[in-house]
Every structure is written in C-alpha cells, then in structure tokens.
Amino acid sequence: MNETYDVVVIGAGPAGENAGDRAVKAGLRVAIVEKELVGGECSYWGCMPSKALLRPGEALAALRRVPGARAAITGEIDVDEALARRDSLSAGLDDSGQVEWVDSAGMDLVRGHGRLAGERTVEVTAEDGSVRTLVAEKGVIIGVGTGAAVPPIDGLREIRSWTNRDVTQAKEVPARLIVLGGGVIGVEMAQAMRWLGSEEVTIVEMADRLIPREEDFAGAELQDALEEMGITVITGARMVKAERAADDAPVTATLEDGRTVTGDEILVAVGRRPLTDDLGLDTVGLEPGRYVEVDDNLRATGVDGGWLYVVGDANGRALLTHQGKYQARIAGDHIGGKDVGRGAWADHTAVPRVVFTDPQIAAVGMTEAEARERYDNVDTVRYDMGHTAGAATTGQGISGTSQLVIDADRRVIVGATFVGPHVGEMLHAATIAIVGEVPLDRLWHAVPAYPTMSEIWLRFLEAYGM
C-alpha cells in the first residue's frame, strides 16, 4: 500500500534536513529518506571532522606567533587526543542525535535507498530488500549531495586509495602522504596530516597553482606557507599512473614528465560527482548521473508540474553546506506556499567560501577575472592584512594579501578575498556589503573598531582614494 505525504525528501544531509524542516513549519507532513547516516557528508566525513583535524596545528601556529606565549609550547600535538576530538565532533559516526532532531522537527524518517518511480512517487528499498512506496502530494525534494570523483588514471581505481571519507576518519597518520588535487580538500588535509605528524606530504595539482578557482595571489601565498612547513607542492603536473606492489605496500605515483612520488597513502581530492546515477531520474525525463538543473525556486527544469525540487550539491550551483541550507530554506518555503518572491540568487552572486588552512583564505562573490567578464569598468584595491593594528597585536609575522573587486560604475563591491589567520570570521562583513549592494560612499561611515584586523576595511577605502 502506498504511503501518502505532502512532501518526500530524499537525502537527510544538511540541505534535505533544512528543506524538510521548513516544509513542516509550513504545516506540511514530511517524510525524509536516508540510506546512510542522518546528517550527511558534512557531519561525518567533511566539514566537522576536517576542521577538528586542522584545529590543533592551527592553535599551535597562532601561539608561535605570540612572543611570550611561544615559550610555553614544550611538546608536540597529542595525536590520539586530536583524533578523539575528531571522533567527538563527528559523533563517532553515530547519527542517533541527528535522528532525535528529525523526530523533534516533526518529520518521519524512512531508512533505505530512495529513488524516483515516476511523478511524485518515491520507492525506498531497505537493507533487508523490502520496498516502501511514498507518494508526495505536493512535491519531492532531492538533497542527495555528492561523492568523491576518481579520475581515469592508470591503476588508480585498482589500488587502495583514500577519499575525503578515509582521510577525515583515519585511525592513524601516514608517514608519507600523496595528495592528488590542490583544491580545498587537498590543501586542508595535506596541512592537517603534516601538523599531525606525517613526515612527507606531497601535493600534485594539474593546474598551475593551488586552489585554482580563487585569486592567483591566494594560491601563491598558501603554497609559500605550505612549503615553509615542509610540504612539497607540485603544480602544472598530471599524474598518469598509480601502483602498489601489494595492498599494504607503498603507492608510487608517476607524473606525465616521468617523475615519481612515493607514499604510504594517496588521497584523491580532485573534485566531486553528483550522486544522481541511481535516483530514478530517468523515470521523470532527466538524465541520471548528472547535476540537475534548477530554477531560482530550486525546481528541476524539464519536469512538468513544478513538483520536483533539488537542493544542495546535487544541483551543482554551489557545492557548499551553507549554500545548500540556503537553497533548502527557499525550496521548503516555496513548496509550503510561502512564495516570498526572492528566489535563490545569492548562490549566483555572493557565495562565501573559506579554505581553513593557515593562512586561511576567505572569499565571497566574484574573482577579478569573473568580474571583468561581466562588468564594463572594474577596479581592484589590495592591502596587506599584516599592516593593520589588529595583526600587530595578534602576533608576529602575520601577513596576507586581501582584495576588493569593485563595479566602478555602481561603486559597489562585487567580490572580496582575504588571506591571513582567522580571516574566515571577517568574511560576513564582505558578504553583507555585496548582498546589500552598499555604496562605497556609505561604507565609508562603517567605522571599524581599533585595534582589530577589521581595520582593513578603512585601509581599503583609503587606498581606493576615499
């Protein structure tokens, strides 16, 4: 017998949970389907455990910049305690706390693999093979996220390798680690493992710089910092082969130019792929295995009736937890009849993103190159974070280029990048300025407190000639 709900959500990660919660608050009856752990990738294999692994080294680096405090450092990181804290922040891979929240929010949790079986219909296959059919009277929301992409490199799929799930839940720190990919996951985990005791860490990046989607200077300054702490960074290099003599033997990676790199583990961090290949998209006229295109209310385009919504990573707009939750709030409101007329536009123009390395790289909106493609007149202004009074009081040796990208015709900020310790906490000011389209002449009257690193906002405006 079919079970009828107003809304069926496939995927109980952050995006799915938030979409379902908003629909419940709109008075709808919601079922949420999850085949793995309630809470999703971010809680157990992404955001939370990765930051827990980075934090001990980041804290030590901060202390070493402070005269007087650095003398108090007398030992090394307690790796066992660091891993235990990681386990605590990722709940020991136990989702019972998240399940309690789902129950308290008023959603019905259905365990199993959910896939579409035609219009407004979801079949859920449980571990024991039994199948439940859920019918959604108002709509289905997909929030299944992404998984690690594995490139077609000779031998790579045949040998034991790590993805983000393996490295964030590692029980031991490898003596030698090869990191394939210099994006966010790659650089964060390279630094975390080095801080935690890896003797050799090598990053291999095909592009000519690290974090290639951000400003050039950000990748260059991060590379300098990683190399200073003993990490080898190889850019502009393509890996063509990976092999192990046995499953427990070292891995040898061969580069296109003939160079080889040897490690005990290899982390594959080249990107993500949508988990839409076994979702039944073909039953509603969509192509499996691809990101699902959506409109600004997060409804799948190409599906008649406007009943199918896709939130978070699976729509490919912005593969970030906070953006997925933002989309989820809009989709949940929309399916609940609360059409506030705003749609999801911030994920086109004001996406905040942070690389939690030391130095951190925090950015929002457009890079300079992206802005020059869109606007006729673009200005940039740069300032070194180390030249603020706040940096001087925080510690010695603090530096990092920061930049604003300005649409000169409107005199508003369209992009911002900050490099330096803890600059992720400064990012929301730039996000508000971009979303609010605050004119520079008005921003001049937003006075930063002294002595803080936020003083850089005044220095930006002064350097711009105001």
From TrEMBL:
Residues at which NAD(+) binds: G181, G182, G183, V184, I185, G186, V187, E188, E205, G271
Pfam families: Pyr_redox_2, Pyr_redox_dim
Cofactor(s) required, per the database record: FAD
Domain Pyridine nucleotide-disulphide oxidoreductase dimerisation: 351-456
BP GO annotations: 2-oxoglutarate metabolic process
Cofactor note: Binds 1 FAD per subunit.
Residue numbers binding FAD: K51, G114, D313
Disulfide bonds: C42-C47
Metal-binding keyword on record: no
Molecular function in Gene Ontology: dihydrolipoyl dehydrogenase (NADH) activity; flavin adenine dinucleotide binding
Domain FAD/NAD(P)-binding: 5-322
Keyword Amino-acid biosynthesis listed: no
Keyword list, A-Z: FAD, Flavoprotein, NAD, Nucleotide-binding
Family the entry assigns: Belongs to the class-I pyridine nucleotide-disulfide oxidoreductase family.
Identification of the protein by name: PF00070 family, FAD-dependent NAD(P)-disulfide oxidoreductase
Organism: Euzebya pacifica
Lineage: Bacteria, Bacillati, Actinomycetota, Nitriliruptoria, Euzebyales
